[in-house]
Amino acid sequence: MPSKLDTILNPRTLAVVGASNDPEKRGYRAIATLQADKYQGRIIPINPKEKKILGLDCYPRLQDVPYEIDLALVCTPARITPDVVRQCGEKGVKGALLLAGGFSEASEEGAKLEAETAAVARQYGVRLIGPNTNGLFSARYACNAIGWFDIPRGPIAVLSNSANVALSLVTEAQNHRYIGYSTMLSVGNQADLQFHEYLEALGEDPDTKAIISYVEGFKNGRAYLEAARKVTPLKPIVMYKAGRTAEGRGAAKSHSGSLAGDYVVASGALRQAGIVLVTESHHLYPVAEALAILPPMPTRRVAVLSEGGGPITMAAEALAEKGMVLAQLTEETQKKLKAIVPNASALSNPVDAGGGTDPRAEYYGLCGRAILEDPNVDALLMVGYFGGYTTRYGESVAETENRYCVEVAEMMKQHGKAIVVQTHYARFRTNALDILRNAGVPFYRDIETAVQCLVSLADYSAAKQRLTRAAATSGGVNAQAAATAIVDGARRAGRTCLLETEARELLGSYGIEVPQTVLARTADDAANVVAKLGSGPLALKIVSKDVLHKSDAGGVKLNVAGLDAVKSAIAEITSSIERDLPQAEITGVLAAPMAAKGVEVIVGVIQDPQFGPMLMFGLGGVFVEVIRDVVFRAVPVTESDVREMFSELRYKKMLEGARGFPVVDKAALTQLILEVSTLSSAHPELVEIDLNPVIAHASGYTIADARMILADA
Amino acid sequence: MPSKLDTILNPRTLAVVGASNDPEKRGYRAIATLQADKYQGRIIPINPKEKKILGLDCYPRLQDVPYEIDLALVCTPARITPDVVRQCGEKGVKGALLLAGGFSEASEEGAKLEAETAAVARQYGVRLIGPNTNGLFSARYACNAIGWFDIPRGPIAVLSNSANVALSLVTEAQNHRYIGYSTMLSVGNQADLQFHEYLEALGEDPDTKAIISYVEGFKNGRAYLEAARKVTPLKPIVMYKAGRTAEGRGAAKSHSGSLAGDYVVASGALRQAGIVLVTESHHLYPVAEALAILPPMPTRRVAVLSEGGGPITMAAEALAEKGMVLAQLTEETQKKLKAIVPNASALSNPVDAGGGTDPRAEYYGLCGRAILEDPNVDALLMVGYFGGYTTRYGESVAETENRYCVEVAEMMKQHGKAIVVQTHYARFRTNALDILRNAGVPFYRDIETAVQCLVSLADYSAAKQRLTRAAATSGGVNAQAAATAIVDGARRAGRTCLLETEARELLGSYGIEVPQTVLARTADDAANVVAKLGSGPLALKIVSKDVLHKSDAGGVKLNVAGLDAVKSAIAEITSSIERDLPQAEITGVLAAPMAAKGVEVIVGVIQDPQFGPMLMFGLGGVFVEVIRDVVFRAVPVTESDVREMFSELRYKKMLEGARGFPVVDKAALTQLILEVSTLSSAHPELVEIDLNPVIAHASGYTIADARMILADA
Best interface-test mutation with A: which of B148, B161, B239, B247 has the largest number of A CBs within 10 A? Predict the structure, then answer.
């Protein structure tokens, strides 16, 4: 039983509101296109002034139509849209596709019109596509309501913030020939239906095996993540998400009015939901193709095979730079290769089966098989001119080449390992390549594109595995009451920023290890400090709701050792604050043992405007200040999420024993991150959590500073 | 008067040694190819057993030929090569192209054979191409001695470490149609002629306007840099240099036996010489085309124009990520644009002249002109479907589109500003695109490729300007004698590592500012230290030829303040060394004032196996340890080189006032780098100079540690 949205996206009865007999009008062209593309449903022109349009019976109004209507294609001008949608509602039309522009993208007035339209739609339960969209293409019933011809059909759905990007994908498929589209939709202003709703429908669409998405910004990022989490275990989503640069964010804002948001945050959230991100526009289509047709990659070990050098070097560079591993071939495999090509230039990976000038297309098959049989290999990248031997050397080698094209595809299926081919002859569309691709092996012109396909395949395989397996940590803590009491206390005191003492207590209530501290009210408490914490060295800092920048105000003293020093440090801190910030209410001076040397990291939670609470983890110090080496995941996070966060840090070697630093205790940090995630889930009122720095040691960690901000009550 | 190498590369008389009547043999196919491609010179088959080959008179031996021979194409097996080259020498043949493999790339024995061949060649003054090359193509006299058909002719020369990469470029040009090759050469083993010699010849070749190079490693990097410095002011060199990753270096080694070397070093040296580096193989050809046909870009300000959004966002992202600047359009330009397209979606850059669905190819021309007239714009990137309007909307718009294709090209010439077009219809090769490209405007399928062309154009324009202007700092110092005395002293003492005191003195002799220091022999010298340097805080460290890791051996004390503390620090350092390294000869303990807080940088000189002495500059501390944010230039460096080094640092914002750090004194650092360059030029025996850290301050810098290593005498 298809969902309502599925029926709207694949309509069997389509009313064209504003149908026309004037060939210049969209209301004429829409019908002409549907007819030309052999729409398998019923087209119902609506126009009070015409009897027939393009041979079809025309009805004056929707309510006069004697059939149920799945979708109304609305070609009328913007200003009468609310009225048209009301008529749709009265007739019980399921969805209305609003082509007109002039709504929120154009002006304040347009925004009002859009809101009015959306309100009418809600009132009647009519779902809206657009406005300001260029239409819809869906292959199931050949519904071409998008105005482009010759859209190749196939298993890829396109969901885009831009019609122009969708058109680019159409022309790409027209050149490519082998894989096309099930659905194409440019979402327009999303007055009603949004990305996540379309996504859910496409997730359930049996005709769709992969989804390409160009997104400038999400109106409801959290809902999108939820939808994506359901879809990505079933089929891949390949996305270009705008917003990597300020310039890109500016362009997105001016184009679709979208707030692209922080790319690092968005990419963390989207990856967590299993989405495959690409950053070059021309990778969208080939990567979607690869993910739609290739077997998965359990890990990232790739073998490279070529007849001749050069391209293997380029392939090795690109693979290694993108985090792939050049598979270590077994002795046995190398022996097999040597038996096949006694004079091979290189038998270890990358494998160069040639160097000569004679045609040897069969090497790709013979050596390829030996490589696929190697248990160390997850995927095979062939580079060079396989598929172009006949073009280069003539028909005498055609039979051999064609035979091995079939065989390579069979090998792939037999071993369940991905094979991708880079060939200099990709754009010649040779007979051999036709055979190869029809048998299921994709080929590419560019080495770097072929490599990106493998990278994305490995990304997607890992995400799919993780999402199938993962259940978010449940939390379930009876610490919640204690924490709530702390929060309530702060609220009663009229504060939205917890005191550090409160923040530490709250962490402690969730079982998070916090260093022992002592709060000194006056210099006389120094003895108590030393009695409890030892004589040092200690770190002392002011606790006051009114002091934001503790160091700047003279509120911090480090490496304080001995009773006298502690005493005078407390006095100095207090008097410095009293002098500089005479209004400040001073709670006391917090003493803690100086942390042992280690690596500064940061663990926190922020609120993202698109995606809500996001867990942040990264390197501290200059790494967070200058380099911003932090990664994000939507709360709650799982252990696998945390593992991926570690691996995504650019300078993760800082955690692995960089010169002068310990190998940090990842297990302890992972535990901390999961606990902070649990805490954040249980206490959404803590809108900001900032443990910075956390000093990571070879064993355990020390939370050196903790800050928490409450939402306004 | 063409050089000897020019004659060899463009031979008018070509002897084929090992010519054959057997169509399976290379000695047959070589002649057949030359004939098929209408070679305009004379082909002379050499074979003692034949009278006629392919209709040509055959000579038994070279010496029997009654003409001067420019090039011998040697198709005989490896083992007789020395003898063939001897015969070439005796006949006075200018060059020999050695096709056979089985030399140094194959075995020890082969390496001997290659050395023997090279020795014979030197003896007779015969220049060798190869061995182990697939041949030579040169367009001037249609000399196709490479065995590929249909090589498009044009102004691009290819100089490659790989025939396979060259073949890939041939197929690319065959698809592209508009620009082809003057010379193609895969250098093989470079037994005699090397990259730099070919490069020099191509630099002088009037048929060559741009050079594409794929290089795995240089045999003589220094000579290559010199040749490149002569060529790049005249014509661009676009290079893919292997070696960015360990995997790439491994593949290069196994392919051509090349030592790719350190990529960061190589890229510094090559950029300095004006070479345009690309890191994606498929950028070689389009970038070379762009540099061959486009006017230069004085700075990096680009405008983006489209009809419709999406692609403009992608273009903005790619431009900004690659360091280009989105030009700020003047009020006047925006007014002009508004007059042309009253409803334009975006008038500021990127400019979106559309949003609707009606054909408006003319907007690219009209808005394009307004944008080019803007003084803030250096280049224009058009994205979308310009060139595809007719394909999409039909013949009715053909006339308009075609007219504007011509006009866009005229605008480009008139304003001397580069225009590149990205179009979804690039692979359709429409009539409009044909007109556009023939008029001189390049078009691309991929946004990121179009952007790379502009980036490389800006890189090349800047390098050309710099190289035309630059003269290396002359040095000219009478400090040389003082420095030499220090070096001689160390050598006499049997040391190749200068003591820190010596290194500092040597720096001082070149006018480099070194902090005042005092050498204490015993704890009793503490009073002298304090008298001269004040009571601190001071840094104290051991001076001993036998202590390499000073800190590890307890040889360093920081923040030492007061006479007593200095005294005990000297004693502690000395006794720690005496205890741990009883054999160590202790010169003393060096005291210096602790440097004020600042940014740690590193300035040094290393010896690169390919490029010789290389100046290194970068960020210190964790930046050099973990992040390796350093850049290199071949010694001597100019002020413009240093400016570029600053701008190439990944985290240059560390120098620009990152939180808690000063804005550093770039002028002082520049001066220091130039002085170190001068010192290195004057003293090649200082094979390693390592000033690390240099603490950069808001005013000036402090050299905190100095290390120098001498070459073995």
Answer: B247
